[in-house]
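Q: Got a minute? One more chain.
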Amino acid sequence: MGDGNSERLWRREAVALARRVNTGWWLVRFNLLLSLALIGFAVVVLTTRTWLPDWVQTYVPFAILVGLVAGTAFLAWFWSRGRFIGKEEALVRLDDRLGLNNQLSAANREVGRWPVYRALKSDDIGLKWRWEVAILPGVLAGLMVLAAWFVPVSELKGREEMITHEPNAWGQMEEWLATLQEEELIDPGSIEEIEDQIGELRDQPENDWFGHASLEASDTLKERLGRDIQDLAKDLGTIERDLDALRTFSTQLSDAGKEMLLQEMEDAMKKLTMNSMGVNSELAKQLSEVDPSQISEEVMNSLTAEQMQELQNQLAEKRESLGSMEGLPPMAEGGL
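A: Always. Here it is, folded:
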């Protein structure tokens, strides 16, 4: 066999050896990185199937998986390229493994003749693929991804409640309305009107519940309702206090003092009628019996002590119920 043919065959063997060595180094790094990436991806898939089951039905997971494989392949190449060998290093290895006493390296530098070529086996150069080691980590990680994708998972408890969580203002207002209804203080029509407004906000698409316009409307309605409740409590307290003073100290008060109390009481009653949260008919009837514009000592005396005490107690009870509601806006100076 001529030198030219031997040179070509030995160089081909060197290229093949370099390719096998470089592929081996890359495959080691690639399997390690891919295994870690697939394990992480399996955790993400399993978690996402619990929280967002519809997500795994889209193309996004497949795109992420392809990106992971491509990314780890490139990263493995970048990491292992420092271990790569070229044709010259491959010829040196062939010299060493075949006992050629550097004939290939010398011939490559044109200081000697190329030895006669002989066909090589993997055992001749000490290289043999161990496929179970090479691919097992990646296969196991891939099986973990398949398990995460198809293993049955229980739907997360409370997920529906989290998705349909409503703005806090709605629940707060409904608590206030429930208290007003329980105390039988407010006209049912006024309560229904507020409930209808809350219902209109709730009838919006869920995606709009926390939009700027919806939250602003909710806060405005809550603030208005809170102010109305506070005004009711304040006016009821004024009437209850003035009634007590007129009943207890009627004979001791000067005309100016009585006039001041009567005027204050009349103003409070007018505010009650102007409040959008009107009092119920029974309480309104009781208050009409002590109309400040018509009140006199004879009228006060016409009401029995039990009637006056009952009315005062009722006013005090309603005022305290209103004042104890949680979440009301801060009272203006001079309030309760």
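A: Residues 243 and 290 are 9 Å apart (CA to CA).
Q: Perfect, thanks.
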